[in-house]
Amino acid sequence: QVQLVESGGGWVQAGGSLRLSCAASERQFGAYTMGWFRQAPGKEREFVASIDWSGSMRDYADSVKGRFTISRDDAKNTVDLQMNSLQSEDTAVYYCAAGFGAGRKIAGYDTWGQGTQVTVSS
After folding, report:
1. Which pLDDT score is estimated for 5?
2. Which residues contact residue 24 at a Cβ distance below 8 angstroms, ignoring those fewer than 6 apart?
3. Mean pLDDT of the chain
4. Integer Cα distance of 100 and 43 in angstroms
């Protein structure tokens, strides 16, 4: 089973940028749809972005569309989330996830990373 490790979280002022990265252990990484989710304190985990196995289909939550970009590098077994124009509402723990034909639903993903904290200060 694939194992996922996120990195790149931290503190940033509103309007700034961060790049999250997720490293996967599985040699069959290229077969997975990869997603990013986030969970703010007191709130449910929510979908942020996903990219299909081919890299040709990307999906974004309305709240991040135009500001965040998801990408994958199958040669390195990584999926990144470039986050620009960050807002205080983006403060959350961000999770990387892997699944097959996963879409936006949490149940569509089989494997999750431990999460990385992103804090945006206004």
Report:
1. 95
2. 2, 3, 4, 32, 34, 77, 78, 79, 98
3. 95
4. 26
